[in-house]
């Protein structure tokens, strides 16, 4: 190894460099006009749902102070806490997928080229994630409708009514996950097959190169 070799950057896979002008800076996959629209919708819903955690924190503080400072426990406040926390978590699932911020534990995936990773994503989305999500939504919609028709309420004394709302959010969250998974699938097929046509994403480095 020569001295110049020691200071050289690590080798980049050809498949990644070929798609470099189309690669999104975070997801590493090309983006398309439709996936950008879907991502924007899912991201807006996820960011809006994140405000629920502030409300949850306020309710928890109020309940704790009321219980330990004034001896005023409330079943209603306890149920409000887990209803809001559940809704915030569920509505944020799609956001984690479109931003690729979910937990990955596949040690093989990260060692593959960009196209190798894309093939794994393709089979995972088509044969694992999407069938599961479709089946889940198929089962959850009647689950929420049945709760609404029965006027289901909490079984706890002074518990919350309208239990169908939370069950409806459960079905909605998996529906949003389907949209997020389809957006991810569009990015994968854009890289592997060139369809839909990928679009260029301008980054700070790209603009700097253009200016020079």
From TrEMBL:
Pfam families (UniProt xref): DctQ (PF04290)
GO CC terms of this entry: plasma membrane
Transmembrane segments: 51-70, 82-98, 119-141, 161-182
Membrane topology: Multi-pass membrane protein
Subcellular location: Cell inner membrane
Domain Tripartite ATP-independent periplasmic transporters DctQ component: 57-188
KW DNA damage (keyword) present: no
Keywords: Cell inner membrane, Cell membrane, Membrane, Transmembrane, Transmembrane helix, Transport
GO molecular function, one term: transmembrane transporter activity
Function: Part of the tripartite ATP-independent periplasmic (TRAP) transport system.
Similarity comment: family membership: Belongs to the TRAP transporter small permease family.
Assembly notes: The complex comprises the extracytoplasmic solute receptor protein and the two transmembrane proteins.
Protein name: TRAP transporter small permease protein
């Amino acid at each position: 190894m020569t001295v110049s070799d020691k200071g050289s950057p690590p080798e980049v896979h050809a498949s990644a460099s070929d798609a470099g002008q189309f690669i999104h800076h975070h997801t590493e996959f090309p983006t398309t006009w439709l996936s950008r629209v879907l991502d924007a919708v899912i991201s807006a819903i996820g960011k809006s749902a994140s405000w629920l955690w502030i409300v949850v924190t306020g309710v928890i503080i109020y309940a704790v102070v009321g219980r330990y400072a004034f001896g005023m426990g409330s079943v209603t406040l306890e149920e409000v806490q887990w209803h809001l926390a559940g809704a915030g978590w569920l509505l944020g699932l799609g956001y984690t997928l479109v931003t690729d911020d979910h937990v990955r534990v596949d040690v093989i995936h990260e060692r593959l080229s960009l196209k190798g990773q894309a093939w794994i994503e393709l089979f995972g989305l088509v044969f694992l994630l999407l069938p599961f999500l479709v089946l889940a939504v198929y089962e959850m919609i009647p689950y929420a409708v049945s709760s609404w028709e029965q006027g289901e309420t909490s079984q706890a004394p002074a518990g919350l009514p309208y239990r169908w709302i939370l069950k409806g959010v459960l079905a909605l969250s998996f529906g949003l996950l389907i949209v997020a998974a389809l957006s991810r699938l569009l990015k994968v097929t854009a890289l592997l097959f060139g369809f839909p046509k990928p679009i260029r994403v301008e980054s700070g480095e790209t603009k700097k190169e253009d200016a020079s």
